[in-house]
Specification:
3 helices, six-stranded mixed β-sheet, Tetrahydropterin Synthase, Chain A, alpha/beta
């Protein structure tokens, strides 16, 4: 029998999303889009129970995919995300934009990542812990969230 060992597992997701950053001093003040890549890393003890359908797994990757897809990817893929105070949020946009998401914060990569972390911590089973998240906005730009950094 294996000695219990904490293991990290990671799954990667991708989605397309548009946003605008109000008051930004560059091009990002305009509505524009990105191909986002979200990495989710969990820690936990693999289940060691003969006959258990998840024997040997920290968490079934398929179960993780269901949670992340439902909570984040399906919601944000091909959406326009704007701060609810944005001048871009007009009645015309509200009525004509099929997938408009308004948030009560500036929709930066960093802020979105913090929101995703909150949601996932609430939705994950108590047998695993969210270790870190990474949200890549472009090929050269990303934000990271680590549980150990949180106060």
């Amino acid at each position: 029998m294996l000695k219990p060992q904490i293991i990290r597992i990671e799954k990667t997701f991708d989605f397309e999303m548009a946003h605008a950053l109000d008051d930004h001093d560059g091009k990002c003040k305009n509505i524009h889009g990105h191909s986002y890549v979200l990495k989710v890393c969990l820690t936990g003890l693999p289940i060691q129970q003969e006959g258990h359908p998840k024997n040997g797994m920290v968490m079934d990757f398929g179960d993780l995919k269901k949670i992340v897809s439902t909570r984040i990817v399906d919601r944000f893929d091909h959406a326009l995300v704007l701060w609810d105070r944005s001048p871009f949020v007009t009645d015309e946009i509200r009525n004509n934009q099929q997938k408009l998401i308004t948030v009560d914060f500036q929709p930066t990569c960093e802020n979105l990542l913090g929101l995703f972390a909150e949601w996932l911590m609430n939705d994950l089973p108590n047998t695993v812990k969210l270790h870190h998240l990474e949200l890549r906005e472009t090929a050269t730009s990303l934000a990271q969230w680590y549980a150990e950094d949180q106060v």
